[in-house]
Amino acid sequence: MKIMMINDFLVFRKDITKANPIFKIWGPLLNFSLIIGGLYFYNHLEGILITLTTLLSLIIVVNIHKKLPLARIMGVCHVVWLPLYPFLFLKIVKEGISNEFHYFLVWSVLLMTISIGFDCYDFYRYVFTDNKTYEK
After folding, report:
1. Mean pLDDT score of the chain, rounded to an integer?
2. How much of the chain exceeds pLDDT 70, in percent?
3. Could you report the per-residue pLDDT of 38-59, keeping only the tens digit for each?
4. How far apart are CA 14 and CA 27, in angstroms?
5. CA 71 to centroid of chain Cα atoms
6. Which residues pair with 71 in a beta bridge?
7. What's the rounded Cα separation, in Å, for the pair 91 and 105?
8. Distance CA 113, CA 93 (A)
9. Distance (Å, rounded) from C-alpha 65 to C-alpha 102?
10. pLDDT tens digit string along 16-37?
11. What is the pTM of this model?
C-alpha cells in the first residue's frame, strides 16, 4: 500500500507540474518546507501538527487526483489546515517572534494563507465556470 501511495503521488506530481510548471516550485516550497520544518520542530506540538496536516493534505490531493485528474477542486485538500489557523496565530501573538521556531510558525501561516487563497480562486472557477481543470 505504501508503494502504491508513493507511485500515486509521483503520478500526481508529474501531471500537475506538466499542466502548470509553477507547481515545480510551489509544491516543494509549500509541502517540503512545512514537513521538514515541522519535523525539525518535532518537540513542539505545532511542528507535529503542521507536519501531520500537510501529509494528510497530500494524501487527500493524491486521492482526488486519482478520481478527478487535474481538477481545480483538488485545493480542498488544504481544508485540514483551517483548524490550525487560530492555534498558530494565537501562539505567535502570545509569544511574539523571538526565535527560529516562531519564524517557522509565521512562515507556515504565510504559506498556508497564500495556498488557501489560490484554492479559493480555483474552487470558484471549478464551481462557477467551465474552467474545471489545470489542463490548458
Report:
1. 94
2. 98
3. 999 999 999 999 999 999 999 9
4. 11
5. 16
6. 133
7. 8
8. 17
9. 34
10. 999 999 999 999 999 999 999 9
11. 0.91
The one-letter amino acid code at 44 reads H
Measured distance CA(31)–CA(118) in Å, rounded: 15
Q: Hey, what amino acid is at 123? A: F
Contacts 24+ apart (CB under 8 A), 87-94: 87/46, 87/49, 88/46, 88/50, 91/46
Question: CB atoms < 10 A from the CB of 90, how many?
Answer: 10
Identity of residue 37: G
Measure the CA–CA gap between 128 and 122, rounded to whole angstroms: 10
Per residue, what are the HEC states of the chain? Answer: CHHHHHHHHHHHHHHHHHHCCCHHHHHHHHHHHHHHHHHHCCCCHHHHHHHHHHHHHHHHHHHHHHHCCCEHHHHHHHHHHCCHHHHHHHHHHHHCCCCHHHHHHHHHHHHHHHHHHHHHHHHHHHHHCCCCECCC
Closest CA to 77 of 108, 44, 54: 54
Candidates 59, 116, 111; CA nearest to 82 is: 116
